[in-house]
Design goal:
alpha/beta, 9 helices, Rossmann fold, four-stranded antiparallel β-sheet
Length: about 240
Amino acid sequence: MSGERLLVVDDEAGVREMTLEVVRSLPEGYSVHGAGTVEEALEQVRSWKPDLVLLDLNLGRRFDGLEVCRAIRGGASTSDVAVIVLTGESMDTAESMLLDAGADDYIRKPHFTPQLLASRVRAVLRRTRKGSASTLRRGPLILNPGRREATLEGAPLALTPTEFDIIHNLAVNSERALGRHELLDRGGAPSAVDRTVDVHILSIRRKLGRHDWLVQTVFGVGYRIGSSPEAARRDA
């Protein structure tokens, strides 16, 4: 039994119950709750504090799920809750919007299988699970994987769980460049994974501001952690 908590948020009762049954049937023995509205979802996130939210994008109105996702990311006590968005929107339209709102992953519906849902849940929880590894310092960036906290020049750096794992993975493997599939262990077509990682990297760089040199592109390979602004300019 994992003891991890999953909240399923969907305004369609039939879809919500189907998703709940799939999650309840997984051998990990997750504790599972459901919610059907924005208000109910936010109340359960605050009071029950799930480890992961399976969030329908359109809760009554188009893109209401984004409101929930942003509220989770913006809450001091909920910012580390993982979010997987379930969406029927075209990915060309929705992907950047979902990841910019703080989603860790997304699944296209209505055609996803129980096996795909299970694998994505396991992958995101594996990436976001708290550990006890040592603190890492890379220039002005300090990462505390045990507490899943990051600071930049001593100030808290607000990263989503997946953003934290990407930059932590880069910092741990500072001696080499990492391919996109190494940075995000999700299934799917290589092009889709590449695009998703690139959107996360863009968000990380925006948050790093003038220290965006900490995440360097290695063309034809992927990304690596930067050693200094001078090295980034030299390698560009």
